[in-house]
C-alpha cells in the first residue's frame, strides 16, 4: 500500500460545524432548486447539493456503529488458543486477523438491547430492536426530519438488518414507495442493499422505516479520514489533518473506482444515488466501501419531482465534493475552491486533480458515466489486479479451514468412541478390542509427557499424526499403555481401520 500523502501546506478551511443541530436542516421541496454562490476557478464551478450532510450532529452514519448502552470488557480473542507453529499456521488455521475481525462482528451482531427503552416488541416482522444511536438528548436529523437507526432481527430468516426510522413523516401517496421497489432490485457490491420500506405507527406516531442489510463494525469515510485530525483550536478553525488519517492516493483510487461502479449500476437502473458524502459511505472491510442510506431521499422528496437527468448530474457534483473532502480532510473545503485545488495538487497526482475537476464541472454532453470510465480506465486494471489478489488470499484462508474440517471429523469420531461408559451392555466396550488401540493412539497423540512428567503441548505433532491417520499411511508407530505393561506396533492404516470399525459399530455411519 502506498504511504499517506504529505499534509504540508494544507490551507485552513472554515469547517462546517458538525454539531450544529440546524446546520443541514434544509431538505425542503421549496428550496430544492436553490444554487450556491458561484465558486469559480478556471471555468469550474460547484453545483449546490440540496442533500449535503444530512446529520445534524457528528456527520457520521451510525448505521453500523456499536451499541452505546453498555460498557463491555473487550474479549481476548486469542485467550483460548496457544500460539500456532509457523509451519502449521498457514496450512491449517485461518489467520488471526481475519478470525478476530469475524469474531468481533459476531459479537456486535448479538449485542443485547438495554432494558427500559420502550421499543416495540415486533415491527412488521422484525423483533429485538437495538438502537444504534442515542434516542434521547441531542438527536440526529435526516434533512428536516428526526431519524433513528436500529438493528433488528428478521422473523423470516433470523438475520440482522438495519432499520432507519424517519419520525413524523406521513406517506401521502402509495406511489412514494415505487422508488424503493426499484432500489430493492439492485444488488451491487458497493451499495448497502435495500430490502423493503413501510410506514408504521408502532412508535406512537407516523414513521417511515427503510430496511437495509447490516454490516457490523463498519466505519464511515468521515470517521476514518476526515475526523481523524489533531485537536481543534478554540475558534473552530485551523485544524490540520493527522498523518494517519489522510487517505493515500492508492486507497483514494480504489474508493473512486468503487463509487463509480455503484453510480453506473444506479444510473443504468434509472435512479440516482443522491447521498454521496463522507457520512454516508461506509468502509465495511479493508478498503471495501458501500454507499448507505440510498432510496430514502426518493421517498422523502416524492412530491418534489425532478428530472432524473438533473439528479444524476448532481451525483457527479456530490462525488466531486467527496473527493475534495477526502483529499483535503475537510468538510468545508468547497468554501474556497481555488485553495482546495492548490492543496489537492500538492498531495496528489495530476490524474486525481483532473478527475475531481471533471466531477464538479459544468454539465456537458461529455459528462457521462461512460466518459468518466474512459478517464480512469488505466486505474481500473490496477484495481482489478488487487481484487484478484484479495480473492486469492481469501481462498487460501478458506483452504486452511477445509483442512481443519477434516481433522475435526476425526476428533468427533474419537469423542464418540473413547471413554464411552457403556455400549451393547458392555461397560468395557471402549477398553477392549479395536477400541483399546484407539485409546492408546489417543494417548500417543495428546497425552505425551517429557522426562520430567510434564505434558508436551506440541500442535505440530498433533496435526501431523491426525493427517497421517486420515490418509491411512503405512508408517508404523509404537503405542504404549499408561502402565507401560503393553506395547503395540501398528501402522496409521491399521489405526484408521480400527476407528472406522468402531465408529460403524455404534450404528452412526460415516461422517463426511
Automatic annotation (TrEMBL):
<keyword id="KW-0963">Cytoplasm</keyword>
<dbReference type="GO" id="GO:0031251">
    <property type="term" value="C:PAN complex"/>
</dbReference>
<feature type="coiled-coil region">
    <location>
        <begin position="378"/>
        <end position="416"/>
    </location>
</feature>
<feature type="binding site">
    <location>
        <position position="164"/>
    </location>
    <ligand>
        <name>ATP</name>
    </ligand>
</feature>
<dbReference type="InterPro" id="IPR041332">
    <property type="entry name" value="Pan3_CK"/>
</dbReference>
<comment type="subunit">
    <text>Homodimer. Forms a heterotrimer with a catalytic subunit PAN2 to form the poly(A)-nuclease (PAN) deadenylation complex. Interacts (via PAM-2 motif) with poly(A)-binding protein PAB1 (via PABC domain), conferring substrate specificity of the enzyme complex.</text>
</comment>
<dbReference type="GO" id="GO:0005524">
    <property type="term" value="F:ATP binding"/>
</dbReference>
<keyword id="KW-0547">Nucleotide-binding</keyword>
<dbReference type="GO" id="GO:0006397">
    <property type="term" value="P:mRNA processing"/>
</dbReference>
<dbReference type="InterPro" id="IPR030844">
    <property type="entry name" value="PAN3"/>
</dbReference>
<keyword id="KW-0507">mRNA processing</keyword>
<feature type="region of interest" description="Knob domain">
    <location>
        <begin position="417"/>
        <end position="512"/>
    </location>
</feature>
<dbReference type="GO" id="GO:0004672">
    <property type="term" value="F:protein kinase activity"/>
</dbReference>
<feature type="binding site">
    <location>
        <begin position="213"/>
        <end position="220"/>
    </location>
    <ligand>
        <name>ATP</name>
    </ligand>
</feature>
<dbReference type="Pfam" id="PF18101">
    <property type="entry name" value="Pan3_CK"/>
</dbReference>
<keyword id="KW-0067">ATP-binding</keyword>
<protein>
    <recommendedName>
        <fullName>PAN2-PAN3 deadenylation complex subunit PAN3</fullName>
    </recommendedName>
</protein>
<dbReference type="InterPro" id="IPR011009">
    <property type="entry name" value="Kinase-like_dom_sf"/>
</dbReference>
<dbReference type="GO" id="GO:0008143">
    <property type="term" value="F:poly(A) binding"/>
</dbReference>
<dbReference type="InterPro" id="IPR000719">
    <property type="entry name" value="Prot_kinase_dom"/>
</dbReference>
<feature type="binding site">
    <location>
        <begin position="279"/>
        <end position="280"/>
    </location>
    <ligand>
        <name>ATP</name>
    </ligand>
</feature>
<comment type="function">
    <text>Regulatory subunit of the poly(A)-nuclease (PAN) deadenylation complex, one of two cytoplasmic mRNA deadenylases involved in mRNA turnover. PAN specifically shortens poly(A) tails of RNA and the activity is stimulated by poly(A)-binding protein PAB1. PAN deadenylation is followed by rapid degradation of the shortened mRNA tails by the CCR4-NOT complex. Deadenylated mRNAs are then degraded by two alternative mechanisms, namely exosome-mediated 3'-5' exonucleolytic degradation, or deadenlyation-dependent mRNA decaping and subsequent 5'-3' exonucleolytic degradation by XRN1.</text>
</comment>
<comment type="similarity">
    <text>Belongs to the protein kinase superfamily. PAN3 family.</text>
</comment>
<dbReference type="GO" id="GO:0000289">
    <property type="term" value="P:nuclear-transcribed mRNA poly(A) tail shortening"/>
</dbReference>
<dbReference type="GO" id="GO:0000932">
    <property type="term" value="C:P-body"/>
</dbReference>
<feature type="domain" description="Protein kinase">
    <location>
        <begin position="135"/>
        <end position="464"/>
    </location>
</feature>
<keyword id="KW-0175">Coiled coil</keyword>
Amino acid at each position: 500500500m502506498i504511504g499517506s500523502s504529505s499534509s504540508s501546506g494544507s490551507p485552513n478551511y472554515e469547517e462546517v460545524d458538525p454539531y450544529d443541530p440546524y446546520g443541514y436542516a434544509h431538505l425542503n421541496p421549496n428550496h430544492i432548486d436553490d444554487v450556491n454562490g458561484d465558486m469559480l476557478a478556471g471555468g469550474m464551478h460547484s453545483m449546490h447539493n440540496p442533500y449535503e450532510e444530512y446529520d445534524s450532529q457528528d456527520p457520521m452514519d451510525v448505521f453500523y456503529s456499536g451499541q452505546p448502552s453498555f460498557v463491555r470488557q473487550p474479549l481476548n480473542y486469542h485467550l483460548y488458543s496457544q500460539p500456532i507453529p509457523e509451519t502449521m499456521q498457514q496450512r491449517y488455521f485461518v489467520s488471526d486477523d481475519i478470525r478476530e475481525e469475524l469474531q468481533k462482528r459476531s459479537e456486535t451482531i448479538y449485542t443485547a438491547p438495554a432494558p427500559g427503552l420502550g421499543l416495540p416488541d415486533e415491527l412488521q416482522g422484525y423483533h429485538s430492536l437495538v438502537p444504534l444511536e442515542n434516542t434521547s438528548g441531542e438527536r440526529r436529523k435526516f434533512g428536516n426530519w428526526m431519524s433513528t437507526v436500529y438493528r433488528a432481527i428478521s422473523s423470516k430468516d433470523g438475520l440482522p438488518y438495519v432499520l432507519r426510522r424517519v419520525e413524523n413523516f406521513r406517506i401521502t401517496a402509495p406511489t412514494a414507495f415505487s422508488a424503493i421497489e426499484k432500489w430493492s432490485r439492485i444488488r451491487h457490491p458497493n451499495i448497502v442493499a435495500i430490502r423493503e420500506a413501510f410506514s408504521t405507527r408502532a412508535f406512537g406516531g407516523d414513521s417511515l422505516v427503510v430496511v437495509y442489510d447490516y454490516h457490523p463494525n463498519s466505519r464511515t469515510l468521515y470517521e476514518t479520514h476526515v475526523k481523524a485530525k489533531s485537536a481543534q483550536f478554540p475558534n473552530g478553525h485551523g485544524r490540520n489533518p493527522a498523518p494517519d488519517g489522510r487517505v493515500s492516493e492508492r486507497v483514494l483510487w480504489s474508493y473512486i473506482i468503487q463509487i463509480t461502479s455503484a453510480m453506473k449500476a444506479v444510473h443504468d437502473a434509472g435512479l440516482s444515488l443522491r447521498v454521496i458524502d463522507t457520512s454516508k459511505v461506509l468502509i465495511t472491510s479493508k478498503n471495501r466501501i458501500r454507499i448507505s442510506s440510498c432510496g430514502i431521499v426518493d421517498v422523502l422528496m416524492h412530491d418534489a419531482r425532478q428530472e432524473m437527468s438533473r439528479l444524476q448530474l448532481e451525483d457527479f457534483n456530490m462525488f466531486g465534493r467527496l473527493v475534495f473532502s477526502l483529499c483535503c480532510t475537510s468538510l468545508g473545503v468547497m468554501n474556497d475552491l481555488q485553495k482546495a485545488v492548490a492543496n489537492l495538487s500538492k498531495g496528489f497526482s495530476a490524474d486525481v486533480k483532473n478527475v475531481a475537476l471533471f466531477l464538479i464541472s459544468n454539465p456537458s454532453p461529455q459528462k457521462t458515466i461512460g466518459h468518466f470510465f474512459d478517464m480512469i480506465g488505466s486505474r481500473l486494471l490496477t484495481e482489478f489486479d488487487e481484487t484478484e489478489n484479495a480473492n486469492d488470499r481469501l481462498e487460501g484462508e478458506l483452504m486452511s479451514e477445509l483442512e481443519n474440517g477434516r481433522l475435526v471429523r476425526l476428533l468427533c469420531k474419537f469423542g464418540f468412541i473413547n471413554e464411552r461408559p457403556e455400549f451393547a451392555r458392555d461397560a468395557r466396550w471402549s477398553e477392549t478390542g479395536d477400541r483399546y488401540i484407539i485409546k492408546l493412539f489417543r494417548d500417543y497423540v495428546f497425552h505425551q509427557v517429557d522426562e520430567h512428567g510434564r505434558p508436551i503441548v506440541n500442535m505440530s505433532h498433533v496435526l501431523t499424526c491426525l493427517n497421517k491417520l486420515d490418509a491411512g499411511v503405512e508408517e508404523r508407530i509404537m503405542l504404549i499403555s499408561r502402565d507401560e505393561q503393553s506395547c503395540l506396533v501398528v501402522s496409521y492404516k491399521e489405526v484408521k481401520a480400527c476407528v472406522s470399525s468402531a465408529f460403524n459399530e455404534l450404528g452412526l455411519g460415516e461422517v463426511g
